[in-house]
Amino acid sequence: MISETGRVVGIEDHALWVETIRRSTCGSCAAQKGCGQGLMNKVTDGRRNQLRVLLGPLAADSFQLNDEVEISIPERALIVGAMMVYLVPLFTMIAGMALAAQYQPGDVTAAIGALSGFVVGMVMVRLHAMYIQNKPAFQATVVAKYDPSLINSVAINATAYSE
After folding, report:
1. Given pLDDT bands bounded at 50, 70 and 90, which one contains residue 47?
2. Is residue 128 part of a domain?
3. Which of 1, 24, 36, 47 could tie 72 with a disulfide, CB 3.0–4.6 Å?
4. Which residues form the signal peptide (predicted)?
């Protein structure tokens, strides 16, 4: 399980809308200038992500807006999601190109086949996303709710010891 903290921005019956801040380790990488991920992080710096998180055994009544929560995402969801988003459109694009080239040789036909295959792959990704939308095995869930009174008391005790 991969954990992340966030702030509650919406409450539903069986789910919360949680806002998380994008983090990156690109500051310590040697390939900063040649990396597309580093460029995207610079462009979207400070933006926040909102995602729907299932409550699991917890009750929606115990949460309020702006509560800090810890959420957990199964590794399986990330692996399957990455394979669906990156590999399926690539394979369908190559298959579409090969299939179109079988019936009509030529670059234009191959390009149209590749584009058609890519669109089919994107539709498959969207259908898969709709299929797993409410399946708990693929969804983020709330693990814990932070109590602000405990956090403040810890911070107060920490400053008392540092003096």
Report:
1. low
2. yes
3. 1
4. none
